[in-house]
Amino acid sequence: MDFKEKILLEEIEKKWGKSKRIQSNENREAVLSHYLNNSKNGVSKFYKEDAIEYAKDILEFSYPNEKITNLVVEEAIQYGVFNTFEIPFPHTLSPKFKFIDLFAGIGGFRLAMQNVGGKCVFTSEWDKEAKRTYKANFGETPFGDITKEETKRYIPDGFDLLCAGFPCQAFSIAGRRGGFEDTRGTLFFDVAEIIKRKQPKAIFLENVKGLRNHNGGKTLATILNVLRNDLGYFVPEPEIINAKDFGVPQNRERIYIVGFRNDLGIEKFEYPKPTKMKIPFSEVKEKNVVPTKYYLSKQYLQTLYNHKARHESKGNGFGFAIIPDDGVSNAIVVGGMGRERNLVIDNRITDFTPTTHIKGEVNREGIRKMTPREWARLQGFPDNYLIPVADASAYKQFGNSVAVPAIQATAIEILKLIGIQ
């Protein structure tokens, strides 16, 4: 068998999809990709046994008449049989630090950390479409459900920084002390449990601004109590960081929580100061005419006008919003009026033929939705970031992502204190 002849990615994925045995464990592709991407940094030992088994399954399926031994598998890996496609954001060859990426989404944290010299040694994300986007850009399939022990057991030792944009779930703490045990049943508990087991030097958590006042402030108080008293980390008061202060034209406020292991002796932390550079929406607006499908129909636009008028008559400020070229967008969010709160005027359209199943004619006012690429830019993703999914998934993924420049600016301040930058 000539293993120097690489198997095309499409052929491998087609064969993986046909093998029921290979599909039995959602983490097997993640194990193999993590093994390949960590073969030279001492972390691969956490993935090697299962990665070899998975690779062997693939080769046995691909070459049923060949005798596939572990030695043959290792030779195949050495020759790069499974490294069959180029990615825009390969891992850092000479990393300054190691981090893990929990609730990874499409890799906003990872992109920021790689930009400052970090090497991701473990990542997890449960959404299949987000995993697809993550793999296309970083060449690594995230592990699945982090609440499962079978996923947690793959997390390596010895990483420096834990990153997590964890979802906020309700905490039930009535009549209790609000400690580690009180977070069971929430996704924060899984983050806390990993911190307790692995003891990274630092942690960096991100959540929606509303976490500060959730349940009358009790939820955040519980989180801080767990981090400070149960887990032994110095955690300064969380801060609300706005993406528009760090080089992207989006008014997006999120709460950042950082922490440092007590034995490091860190007693003070300052969040990054806002930059003086103000970026208008025109800087991220599409340079070319966008497809007609992004323009609203006359009928739908009238519905939005009516909706806004009804709310204004009641003294409410709800309704669609048009972002001027010299302005800053509202926060891009999933659901509700997420896209309608960020409409733009673009009169470059010349073909008004509907390209989707919209009812009625395309509006003549030049009003359109932002494109997924514009949303990507609003979150600080560079233009070589691949968007391999349909628009509906792309809007969801960028709407749920972190703002890369704000994360990166905060990471720099964290790394200074743990002696990495």
UniProtKB/TrEMBL annotation:
Question: Which EC number(s) does UniProt give?
Answer: 2.1.1.37
- Any one biological process term the GO annotation gives: methylation
On whether Nucleotidyltransferase is a keyword of this UniProt record, the answer is: no
One molecular function GO term is: methyltransferase activity
Q: Name one Pfam family in it.
A: DNA_methylase
Say yes or no: keyword Isomerase present: no
SUPFAM superfamilies xref list:
S-adenosyl-L-methionine-dependent methyltransferases
PROSITE patterns xref list: C5_MTASE_1, SAM_MT_C5
Catalysed reaction, written as an equation: a 2'-deoxycytidine in DNA + S-adenosyl-L-methionine = a 5-methyl-2'-deoxycytidine in DNA + S-adenosyl-L-homocysteine + H(+)
Concerning Gene3D superfamilies, the annotation shows: 3.90.120.30, Vaccinia Virus protein VP39
Keywords of the record, alphabetical order, are:
Methyltransferase, Restriction system, S-adenosyl-L-methionine, Transferase
In this protein, the active site sits at: 168
Q: Which NCBIfam families match?
A: dcm
| UniProt family annotation | Belongs to the class I-like SAM-binding methyltransferase superfamily. C5-methyltransferase family.
Q: What is this protein called?
A: Cytosine-specific methyltransferase
Taxonomically, what lineage is the organism?
Bacteria, Pseudomonadati, Bacteroidota, Cytophagia, Cytophagales
